[in-house]
Design a protein that fits this description.
148 residues; alpha/beta; Nucleotidyltransferase, domain 5; 2 domains; 5-stranded mixed β-sheet; two-stranded antiparallel ribbon; 3 helices; elongated
Length: 148
């Protein structure tokens, strides 16, 4: 890198790009040589489908509150008309459980107004549930998770 001075004594740097181009060409040659040696595919091991029709054991202590799009509420498979009744039943179900078994899942369709889900979350939290999980996938199409 040389410095050129002008008649006003101002220093202007001049960058010699020839060494930079040389380095670029060397890297290009290195990558061209290494490119054919690189593996062209990734090996993966896919688990084989088991021949048994094995079902996961259902935890009978799991509580799922479903909010159907048509209205009302469901606690597992039991239909409930009001949030107050839902709160009472949840309190009875959670009373006496150990602290690590007080999880409740709330299932609602994506088309439902979010404030309705928040109101149900308040009822569930008031009943003593912790943690609270939300599930939204596949509820409208009827291909939801496992039925409890």
């Amino acid at each position: 890198m040389t410095l050129r001075t002008t008649h006003r004594r101002r220093v202007v740097p001049i960058i010699n790009v020839t060494p930079l181009i040389d380095v670029l060409l060397v890297l290009l040659i290195i990558f061209m040589v290494l490119s054919p040696m690189r593996p062209h595919q990734f090996e993966s091991r896919i688990p084989q489908k088991s021949h048994e029709n094995r079902m996961e054991p259902v935890d009978l202590m799991t509580l799922v509150v479903t909010i159907p799009a048509a209205g009302g509420y469901m606690l597992n498979q039991r239909e409930i008309a009001t949030r107050e009744e839902l709160g009472k039943l949840l309190f009875k179900a959670l009373d006496g459980r150990p602290a690590d078994r007080k999880a409740v899942f709330i299932k609602a369709p994506k088309s439902l107004i979010y404030s309705e889900v928040i109101k149900v979350m308040d009822v569930v939290k008031g009943a003593g549930a912790f943690p609270i999980g939300l599930q939204i996938e596949g509820l409208e199409s009827g291909s939801g998770g496992t039925k409890i």
